[in-house]
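Researcher: We're teaching a course module on how sequence relates to structure. For the next exercise, students receive a sequence and then see the predicted structure as tokens, so they can try to spot secondary structure elements on their own. Here is the exercise chain.
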Amino acid sequence: MTVNAKKLNNMLGKSPVSRQALSKRLGVSDRALRVLVNELRKQGVAVCSCSNGRGYWIGNAEDRRITIAEYRHRAYEMLKIANALEGNLEGQIEMGEICGAKTVYAK
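Model: And here is the predicted structure for the students to work with:
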């Protein structure tokens, strides 16, 4: 776990703290904060958030269930888009042709 991730973990409690406040306190960008949050989550820290933008906090069991449900919903929506795009591949230009390198994607 990085030093900033440890600092973030220590800043989080039972009440939501906005991304803006956390970013400012850590001295990192909003994007860097989201990376740190994901780092903590991958370590099993119960960092919760809501799509309503309340902020981040260490959640109880119900909070974790809600956060997990939101993640699964987002993943499902992404999978539906990927499947729709995959169904329209024939005759499409490949990314490698645009970027100048051949890109191979595993199925």
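Model: If you want an answer key for the exercise: The chain has a mean pLDDT of 86. The CA atoms of residues 56 and 79 lie 26 Å apart.
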